[in-house]
Amino acid sequence: MKERPYPLLNHPVDVSHSFSNLENTMFLPEKLSSFNAAKAQGDILWGRYAYKVRMAFNQESINLIPSQPWEFPSEYGGEKEPYPFSITFYGNRTLRLRWEGRKTPRQPKQPSLMLAKEPKPTTPWKVARKKGRLVYQGKAGSVTVVEDPWALEIRDASGGLLTKTLHLKDNRSLRNTDPLPFSFQRPTPEYGRQFAASFSLANSEKIYGCGESFTRLNKRGQKIVLWSYDAHGVQHDGMYKPVPFFMSDRGYGMFLHTTAPATFDFGHSYNEATTLFTGNEVLDLFIFLGDPKEVLSEYTTLTGRSPVPPLWSFGLWMSKCTYKSEKEARDVAKKLRDNQIPSDVIHLDTGWFEEDWRCDYRFSTTRFKNPRKMIQDLAKQGFKISLWQLSYFNPKNRLFKEIIDQGLAVTDGKGNLPTEDATLDFSNPKTVKWYQKNLAGLLKMGVGAIKVDFGEAAPLKGVYHSGMTGFEEHNYYPLRYNKAAADVTREVTGENIIWARSAWAGSQRYPLHWGGDAECTYGGMMSSLRGGLSLGLSGFSFWSHDIGGFVNAPTEELYKRWAAFGLLTSHSRCHGMYPREPWVFGKAFTDVFRKTVEMKYKLMPYVYAQAVDSSQKGFPLLRTLFFEYPDDPASWLIEDEYLFGSDLLVAPLMEEVLERDVYLPPGIWIDYQTKQSYRGGQWHKIKAGPIPCVILARSGSVIPHLELAQSTKDMDWSKVELRAFGANTEATGLFCLPPDVPGVASAKGDLPGGTLQSLLLEREGSFWKLRKPVPRSLSEGGGLPPKLSYIITT
What we know:
Layout: E1 25-36, E2 41-56, E3 59-66, E4 80-90, E5 94-100, E6 126-129, E7 133-137, E8 141-146, E9 151-156, E10 161-164, E11 183-186, E12 194-200, E13 207-211, E14 223-226, E15 242-248, E16 252-256, E17 262-266, E18 273-278, E19 282-289, H1 292-303, E20 316-318, H2 326-338, E21 345-348, H3 371-380, E22 384-389, E23 392-393, H4 400-405, E24 422-423, H5 429-444, E25 449-452, H6 470-473, H7 476-493, E26 499-500, E27 513-514, H8 522-536, E28 543-544, E29 546-547, H9 556-567, E30 572-574, H10 587-602, H11 604-617, E31 622-623, H12 625-628, E32 642-644, E33 648-652, E34 659-664, E35 668-671, E36 677-679, E37 682-687, E38 693-698, E39 701-706, E40 719-725, E41 730-736, E42 756-764, E43 767-770, E44 774-775, E45 789-793
Parallel strand pairs: 20-21, 20-30, 21-22, 22-25, 25-26, 27-28, 29-30, 40-45
Antiparallel strand pairs: 1-2, 1-11, 2-3, 2-4, 4-5, 5-19, 6-7, 7-8, 8-9, 9-10, 11-12, 12-18, 13-15, 14-17, 15-16, 16-19, 17-18, 23-24, 31-32, 32-33, 33-38, 34-37, 35-36, 35-38, 39-40, 41-42, 42-43, 42-44
Helix pairs in contact: 5-7, 9-10
């Protein structure tokens, strides 16, 4: 994003900038002043430093020098002061490090919504003192506290250094502020505290995550500003869904537990340094040890995992900005069925109110004669209705005065509105109750999902019911917003489903999220994929995007290639400012589009089983290649391909071509459309099939299919095709019967719907035979429901 010399409303706050303010006082850790090794807690003695400008050879530079206190009286602090530091352990792979920059007791806060629940500490790892070093050794690695001068080292199980804190003594450049040492500052004139946690970054180290980041997948060399922002596109560094978590290819991950503005500098300012800047007065940092799956499992154990959305949500959503009447909604549904385009959701965007964009939770009385009956009629045809809304109310909205009068909006320090809109304050329980009551009325009418749009512009200068300002509540806002909508949806419908744009750490517990307003270009398509993969590496199992892009009208060639990518995503919605209905683009396009949608509907048993598996493990349904193949160096470099679940590899066509170069991880891969085999661990030029996308199945996999249906409601789960790929003697896969599937009820003692099972096919001559399905949990008995039959194909 272009940095501007003047501030604009709601533009990202980069807290790293203040660390170059020469008026600020810096504090650097010097040594442990007291520390209980058994409890892993005590104090670090911090020395006071100031910036000093130095001129040499007609050029000025900045250095840090020790400084004397300049406060009166001396009770405010001396040249060196001790402040609390602690380590807490959670099992074998997770540790929590906390540094504080004040002695003043802080006011207790409400439990963190970022965490699924407050984690319970386990026994500290075995500690040994070795020559001025305290070494805490666990099964997955160790953390070493160097006593004097203070430092921290994180190592793997074999003793290899993963990363360590950086200090003045480590600097090798002519400026001792390169890299900025591990420190905190007292900024002028606020007199608060802000931390800069600097760690070593190995020469070839790669970094991934940080939320839905649209920039290059490997964040090495980038500076990521973690500020929820209405990005208005996907080809810059602004983010709708920042998440203060990342993982390294060296075998560790970090989660900065904060909602304050944060900036992660991964070798951007200095090649060998990662610096985590936070506006929080406490540095609360979780570190996870292991490979990508182990790190993400630990992180989602802490912050929560995505529950499985309802089966219908995995079908096609048809939308544009916007259908404005009951007639339009019914007409689109009829044409989808007439053209035999499988679909499950009709989305009504900003135009279902009396005034476009003026959200008041009421259907227009002039354009929707009987919305309840419309919803009921469409449900019989296999369609759910999704409705757009937002949490900002302008002065012309009929609800504006009610929100102000009841004290439901964010205010400023003077009790006024900090912006033109009344922005709902979700830190206020009264606001949440009011908001959920309005949504509940729609959900009880039969609405399937609420689009939780916007949420990235909570006022920075606002004062919130929680007692915090926008400095801490801005990034918190998407999480509170997501939770409020998801909770009432689950309460009324029993389903885990919203359609949200903004997010923060913990929002993955409230699926699902889509990628915002992508440009209608191949660049927009590529950036959307990077954003989805990065979000998946940040704990989100489910994700979607506007197929074809949002801003303009896509070309036919772009749209059909994007449709293939979009239908091989966990959730698939066609949406934009111009029509996205396939028949608008002509018969030839509609035929290709239909075939693409039919593929996903036939694959629904695979999609659903992989969704359940991802939910249980905290894994993404869209996966980078290295997530499944961490020992393959080349897989860490690929950002324009992905794994759709564990067994399908997808390489979208990102330009107007019919073939592309595809890197395949180790093993044998079978083209899903042509059945041609390819050897992995190398590049191939592969031509797309009738569906304009390269799709390959892992050899030795079982991909369950169903007969085609026009809606998930009409799918016949009693007849499953188990399609085996490859010439292996065995093939494995997953199967999960969705809950409450009609006609395939389980007998007593059999596995209930929603139970994930492992499938095993064994080859006998030229035929495959299904061995008894293996329940994921050995404590669960039974097998496939008695009314379910299957056929095996290759």
